[in-house]
Amino acid sequence: MLKELNLASLIIYDEDIKNGFLLIEDLGDDLFALLCKKAPEIDHEIYGSAVDLLLHIHKNPAPKSLQKYDMNIYLKESKLLTEWYLPAAVSAPLSKSLIDEFHTILHETFSKIPSYNPVLVMRDYHAENLIWLPKRSGINRVGLLDYQDALAGHPAYDLVSLLEDARRDTSSDLRKNMINKYISNSDLNNEEFLMAYNLLGAQRNIKIIGIFSRLSLRDKKSNYIDLIPRVWNHLINNLNHEACSDLKQWVNKNVPYPNHIVLQKLVHVI
Fold first, then answer.
1. Residue 48 C-alpha from the chain's centroid
2. Are the beta carbons of 182 and 160 closer than 8 angstroms?
3. pLDDT, tens only, 101-147
4. Helix (H, G, I), strand (E, B) or coil at 15
5. Residue 15: what are its φ and ψ, rounded to 5°?
6. Which pTM value belongs to this model?
7. Which DSSP string do the residues of 22-63 spell out, in sequence order?
8. Could you read off the pLDDT of 211-262 as tens digits, one per residue?
């Protein structure tokens, strides 16, 4: 679909599937994350182009072949919090009643996500998967990486991925301006979109905290735990939306803040 929309996704020139080789296009080294670190003043320009690209994609329905990003996946992903982060953080197994309560609140909360015709959701649409191609024009200045896990879902999801980056800070002005840019150039209701944005943001950030905990505890990749406080801050911002009130109350009551002591519990012990 990306090529059909004339987007700057990687061209595969040749392949040897049996031996695990691909000959692919080289889009260069100008990752958004690196550019913004070297020249912070460029962030509004390149993020604006990334938002334009999303608007372009979202004018088209998702391919029918894509699995839907639905309640079943929302719940499955969110359970990673109670499977990995929370047991380690409290240093104890969780009771069945606590887990059941969490699942009930998740279902009730995510049921509020406004329905919308599904669009292509790349899921990992962030600064380390986007490459700036200034010699090209328009939305083709944004090179795309890592979209193999795409699903069909709500258009707010990839905007959350872009602006609530787990690996780098984005300013409140940038987030506000990019959200306004997206809404003003779409046919979506402002209040409904902001509600969806925060509900999907809460779901995504809960999932990421669980994934990063698993990467450390199971896969011995302890560098990921250093990213958890940033993701936690994104989550708290999402939970401040009134649609997340019950989930916010549950998190405040049951999930410890990822301070130094908690993060140390997430380090894999040989």
1. 18
2. no
3. 999 999 999 999 998 889 999 999 999 999 999 988 888 899 888 77
4. strand
5. -150, 150
6. 0.91
7. EEE----S-BHHHHHHH-GGGHHHHHHHHHHHHHHHTTSPPP
8. 999 999 999 999 999 999 999 999 999 999 999 999 999 999 999 999 999 9
